[in-house]
DNA sequence: TAGTGGTCTAGACCACAAT
DNA sequence: TTGTGGTCTAGACCACTAC
């Protein structure tokens, strides 16, 4: 007994999707018009439109009224996370700026900082009490003027309050690790939790996403620690198909080393 | 001048999506029937069906014929990646098994190993010549019997050929780091590149995804290095909304230490 | 002006669940 | 048997592009 046949709209979707993902239909390529697809497959207009809607919802194509459907550009920015020592580079630029410039795009960002009492959720992540004061900074990052990343950062004022780096964007140093080092707090690790989910309406607005295409985001919860103490936590959001996250992780960097242990 | 109004189907989508993501409509909750939505909003059947199709394509709901539409369970498995020393745990279980058991689910897997000539793409990642022999192992991982992860692993036979760990699943040790250590190859880092994209048809089949819901995957390209030499590379694929990736990264773990550098 | 995609109508018919 | 969602028809009308 054979499997049941897929529905007609699914056959169009599968055909075009595999040709797009394989590269046969390159970004920018114009798809056949709806009428052509209708005639080629022998399906009704509605079914062809439905198939194209699904491909748009997957972010693989974009429709342009009066013109046609086109294979979407899925060029990705690279975001690097690694162990390298960044403490000595006082005044160095931010990780976002470095990644953007590496991709040949002009970085810029907007930010807004405010002291607020910690919500229970943020307090849990920072290991402080709900209501304790934290510095909340909202960021919106742009590459060549296009919004490409959002972040909400929270820092306990028990750590930074009253110091020169209390306001993240006003101090003499940029970047969490460098700023904390500046006030004598040695960050020794961070934890990132990566998930994907549909974009929320505010994110669609802030990232200027097409409501019909590419509505998925990558969400990261990041927390920096100095020993057992959390000194910053942030929620970071990217357009899901516009970013590639790179983690370069050392293995077994700590003593006891193999030589020290083995006779 | 105000913004143009969103289309009718979008209003339904936005309403239900925000209520689902906020938790007001919990996983398992039954949505109003199509007829009820039609009456409540005053739209045609087609427009209500279209809105529900989009929510399904986002993986937020699943339709059950003859029953109703339900908020989808988005419980996530956790996959951990960190720097801990795993070399000494000979015979230890695999990372996948550890993560699954931590989530209270029963791990199992299928694998199949074969010697093949390296494709140009794999050769590039391993820093060897196309055509050089590699061990290709296909994995399918299951939790409580449900397929939950796919992997294609490639190891240069120049490294493992003729040793006891040549066939990954037949040696005395499990896991890349432990196996390489067993033959005297000290892995000191790995790199993971994380992206998201729509699932390809074979992946939908192998992961038993609903073609109508949750068609997104997280794809990881991972490469292990011993010094400058790549000793394994793998393509790993997860259902996008079923996994949470956790990276725990040390900062500045290598000499020269701060003390060594600063007078 | 002609052609294209985006939204929408008013249904029909089928597969399946609940009863 | 009734109610539900899934697939599909045969269009209409609008917004916009390309010419």
UniProtKB/TrEMBL annotation, chains A, B:
Pfam families: GntR, UTRA
Transmembrane segments: none
Annotated HTH gntR-type domain residues: 6-74
UniProt entry keywords in alphabetical sequence: DNA-binding, Transcription, Transcription regulation
Entry-linked InterPro entries: Bact_HTH_transcr_reg, Chorismate_lyase_/UTRA_dom_sf, Tscrpt_reg_HTH_GntR, UTRA, WH-like_DNA-bd_sf, WH_DNA-bd_sf
UniProt key word Transcription regulation: yes
Keyword Transcription: yes
Gene3D superfamilies: Chorismate lyase-like, Winged helix-like DNA-binding domain superfamily/Winged helix DNA-binding domain
Region of interest (Disordered), residue spans: 82-117
Superkingdom classification of source: Bacteria
Protein name: GntR family transcriptional regulator
Native source species: Micromonospora qiuiae
């Amino acid at each position: 007994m054979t499997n049941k046949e897929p529905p007609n709209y699914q056959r169009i979707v599968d055909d075009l999707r595999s040709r797009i993902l394989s590269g046969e239909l390159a970004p920018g390529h114009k798809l056949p018009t709806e009428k052509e697809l209708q005639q080629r497959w022998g399906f009704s207009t509605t079914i062809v439109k439905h198939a194209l809607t699904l491909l748009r919802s997957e972010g693989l194509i974009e429709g342009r009224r009066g013109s046609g459907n086109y294979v979407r550009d899925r060029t990705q920015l690279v975001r690097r996370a690694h162990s390298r020592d960044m403490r000595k580079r006082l005044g160095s630029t931010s990780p976002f700026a470095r990644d953007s410039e590496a991709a040949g795009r002009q970085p810029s960002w907007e930010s807004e900082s405010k002291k607020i009492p910690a919500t229970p959720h943020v307090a849990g992540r920072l290991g402080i009490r709900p209501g304790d004061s934290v510095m909340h900074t909202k960021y919106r990052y742009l590459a060549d003027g296009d919004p490409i990343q959002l972040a909400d950062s929270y820092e306990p004022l028990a750590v930074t309050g009253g110091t020169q780096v209390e306001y993240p964007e006003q101090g003499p140093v940029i970047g969490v690790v460098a700023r904390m080092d500046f006030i004598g707090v040695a960050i020794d690790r961070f934890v990132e939790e990566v998930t994907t989910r549909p974009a929320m309406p505010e994110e669609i607005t802030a990232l200027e996403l097409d409501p019909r295409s590419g509505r998925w985001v990558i969400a990261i919860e990041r927390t920096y620690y100095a020993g057992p103490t959390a000194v910053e936590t942030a929620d970071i959001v990217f357009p899901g198909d516009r970013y590639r996250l790179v983690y370069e992780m050392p293995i077994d960097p700590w003593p006891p080393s193999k030589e020290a242990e083995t006779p």
